[in-house]
Amino acid sequence: MKRLLFGASSAILALAALPASAQTVSEPHGASALDDVVVTAQRRAQNSQDVGIALSVIGGGELDEKGVNVVNDIENVVPNLEVDSQFGSGQPSFRIRGIGTREYSSNNSSTVGIYVDEVAHPYTITTQGAMFDIARMEVLRGPQGTLYGRNTTGGAVNIITNAPTVDLRSGFSAEYGSYDRYKIEGYVSGQIAPGLLGRLAAVTEQGGAWQYHRDTGERLGDRDKTAIRGRLTWDAAENVIVDLAATWAIDKSDGLGFRLRAPYPVFDGSVTYPADTAWRITGWALSPEMAAVSGRALGSKPGRDNDGLDLAARVEADLGWATLNSVTAYQTFSRSEYNDWDGTRFNESDVYFYNDLEVFSQEFRLSNAIGRLNWMVGAHYADESLDGGFYTQFRGANRELINTPYQQSVQAMGIFTHNSFALTDRLSLIAGLRYEYEERSLTTSGTRRLNVPAGPDVTYDTDLSEVTGRFGLEYDLADNALLYASVARGVKSGGFTTYNGTSATPFKPEIVIAYETGIKSDLFDNTLRLNGSIFFYDYENQQIQGLEYDRDSGRLGKITNVPKSEIYGGEIELSWMPINGLTISQNFGYKEGEYTDYFAIDGAATDAANPVNGPWDIIITNDRSGEPLQFPKYNYGGSVAYDWTLAGFDWRAETNYMQRDAIYNAASSSVLPGYWLWNANFSMAPTNANWRVTLWGRNLFNTYYEETRNGFNGSARPTASPNQGRTVGVRLSMDF
Predict the structure, then answer these.
(1) How many domains would you assign to the chain?
(2) Residue 642: pLDDT over 50
(3) Is residue 121 a contact partner of residue 466, using CB atoms and an 8 Å limit?
(4) Distance separating alpha carbons of residues 444 and 281, to the nearest angstrom
(5) Residue 126: what are its φ and ψ, rounded to 5°?
(6) Domain holding 410: CATH number?
(7) pLDDT at 354 over 90
(8) Quick check: bond before 615 cis, omega within 30?
(9) Which residue has the higher pLDDT, 165 or 504?
(10) pLDDT band at 7 (very low <50, low <70, confident <90, very high)
(11) 75 DSSP assignment
(12) pTM
């Protein structure tokens, strides 16, 4: 391992002789050099090339061009990042550099922190409506705790929305594409009164049903999403600025239908479905019992009825000796989601999720620059409550609904500091520290069939008390090249498995010690940018999907902890403007990992060693040390764009692409194949006009690829959640 890291470090140092780095905001026509990208990743405005952190930036103008419609889509433009909507649900799971969980319940915190205008979204189910009127996105890789409100082991995704403007501006974009999908987005911004600026933005997205029911021909996949955001910026006093924001979003979109990968005989033997040959085929049916508990009409499709409200107040005050920042936020969200996981009109793997959550958070930060020292200290508090659960209806002779209700509360407090001290004109010391305390409590009456009386409420508790931090060095090799190295310790909260109420005993927090080194460089008169980083993670108590046995109930799915694991790899990001108007961007991520200390329960052997109906007193384990972790080893992506002027028009042609490696699933001894995706855009507008027309295509080569494969009804009858094939469309954008 040491030789690998030394060799990789040498390779990165060699790159200093070459050009440089991160995703770059789309350039105006005729640009001959890459622009500086200003980010706030370290809670102050900096050129992204001066930040000694593995960081990718996606400009707001790039989001439509690269097909980023929800935060999940950033996996196609950022190296070593994956986002899965677990089993086709609206619950996204984020992984950066292989660190992340896979689960479909809503109650546990994410290994990747998601922030919108500095406000943490601790439950990722709430992030699906945040992607409109965006200024930029910043993706930080590695543990984060000395800069942000919450502590994470994987990294952070910062979404920064457009701020109000002094001058009056407005604009809209209207898009129409395959399967009658359309999207309309607009904004108006300007001065409301002296010292008061405002901005109002809204978006709606409708249509797009691309799947169909194999038995009835009914279509599935329509989007029905609307969101509106208002922002006010007020000069409250000479040295005080107040920024208020409110975002309301509603999502009534259809769910994703599953595809049968093998012949499927239903439980009573009345029908055997052949394997689906077309990936648009699926099936579903809402039972009367599920309709009653979900409040849906019979005949309803799988889908969501979610809505949320986010309120935030940010205050910045110049105290003279320091700048005080206060961020106060309140969030409510309601989840109502029905999914059909067997992909047939028989109710053999149906599930309904229901949740109501509230989050209040308060953060204070003091910061200043004194000579060679940039310092910041902060405190964060969060109070969270989440009520809900889910109903399931699974294969068997008795398909009565099963309900698992729960109520969860979380109180978290963190005190943190992040500091940079210039030891010399070229060498800086980075030091950060955090103390975090958290209490989590979950109350449940257990899992029961609806015809069985509810059991007594049982409360489970877990807490977290940890010191984490970061220590690093940054060295300016030249005016345009930064070398950095760091070691950081990050912690992700423990939590509770809510798949069934009999396995709600808490799992432990996970801890990552991350070693990283990298380089950032701008060369050849800022026409070439090349950034590279390598890392090694020492992983303790990794949280994974596993098994445990209850003496009376038998096998239970549960989130468990792996004592020891390790992950290593790296990323390279390049942007190059070889001639005026031509921009080439490339990125590559590589990672490998394995369990280094893990004795896991062997389900088949344990079942065989105990009576069929229990009790389950004998537990058999096997040593899975050395087994590879389950994530793609590499991903590669990039884009090529060319801008030119001809016959009084400005033209732009762009293509972007990505490749993801296969994922091996040890539990089922199967491989989820890798794939390539290609997109393209072609746009034109009269020179100096206020409008532009764009033709676009997504998944141009109609590639079939799957997000997950599942065997809810037995591994011999697996299902898959397919992704959409080729789509094309047109977009009109106009500013006033």
Answers:
(1) 1
(2) yes
(3) no
(4) 38
(5) -85, 0
(6) 2.40.170.20
(7) yes
(8) yes
(9) 165
(10) very low
(11) G
(12) 0.89
